[in-house]
Sequence to fold (446 residues):
Amino acid sequence: MNRPKQHMRLQEAQNILQNNWRDGFTIPCDRLYPFQWNWDSGFVCLGLRHFQMERAMRELRMLFSGQWDNGLLPHIIFHSETETTYFPNHPFWQTTVNSAAPQRPKTSGITQPPVHGFVLEWLYRQDRGKPAMEAFVRELFPKVLRLHQFFYQYRDPQKEGLVFIYHPWESGRDNSPLWDDILNSIEIHPDQLPAYERKDNLISQPDDRPQQRDYDTYVYLLELGKKHAYDGPGIAAESPYLVQDSLINALLIRSNQSLIYLGKELGFDTGQIEEWQSQSCESFQQKLWQESIGSYTCYDLRHQRPIYQKEIGSYCALFAGVADSRQAHLLDGQLRELVERNFYLCPSFDVDSERFESRRYWRGPIWPQMNWLIYQGLKDNGFSDTAQLVRQHLIDLIDRQGFYEYFEAQKGISDELEHGYGGGNFSWTAAVYIDFLQESAGRLLV
Ligand code: DGY
Fold:
């Protein structure tokens, strides 16, 4: 795409972020996701920082206005109590079962991948030396630290430095085939499931979305969380889905690293974080790497076994900085092989698995924010050619198909499509596009 055209696309990306702005925060997508989402907001900040740093700061502040007293940062903050296009909305969550939840804003009771430490570092590096930024980081640092404390306190019962999740929504990869075996083994009796009505599949194409059975298990696990006041111990004892996720733990490690950097810059004590970090890095390497498939995997803590599936979380170990040189080369080689086999990078699930589905949400498509994470990790590990492919494939897809939530990975199919999948005018897609272009095309925005 030539420069004027790309400039127009950049303008379009800015307009999307503008239109999705709701007085203090950015919704991911109109109607489909009409509130503030946790990790979405983090990625939005990475785009906003290039043209409205002030707004990026407000975005993050607003997100943390929903933090619970025990440190949990919920995956949704329902700043508006009158929106009706989303299920499960705030009355369904009933977070008042836990006294640590704020009265207002209303929130969900589970969390999402901890991107906030490194997002704060990226904002800081951009405006390093400016008093407003320093004050901002001083304000946010203790809140992000509280979140990490929450993870280590409530989600690591064996104190091994690897934290668990108890709901697929916490992984960010809702209906990944990773969870199939666990979710299929859950027997749900009709009286364990309250009546509910989905809205997502009325707004987005049903073929792009999770299936009904997936939603039943999401609601079942939500009810289980509610029963235990969304608190660690009861859930660890009872939840059939208890997973040490590669993505969550990789991002926690990367965010620890950012907190250590920021803490040293601004004179905060980082002793506790450094202790977490050394244990987490070691456990991640020992427990999550599976030599037989050449991949980092998730670990099913309930059934005490690795989930032997190759998928996108594995590549985030590069961003966490835990992979040794041989492992890093293996991961890089896998991505390059996908390119040779006519895939755009990075499919979210093993393309050779019978569970791969090229358009259904997390069962195969390319996700913009994942390309951002993998791009950074590849660069950090010296694989700049592959990093450029990861970046360029996403830019080209957006240029051709628009600012969708996710994209087709198979070249043969994708090249025939005029659009991506899921929601349109999507905030993190716009934000990642801006960040990718600003970094390499020589600051097109002013
Ligand atoms: C959804 O509603 O699809 C989200 O992924 C859960 O937060």
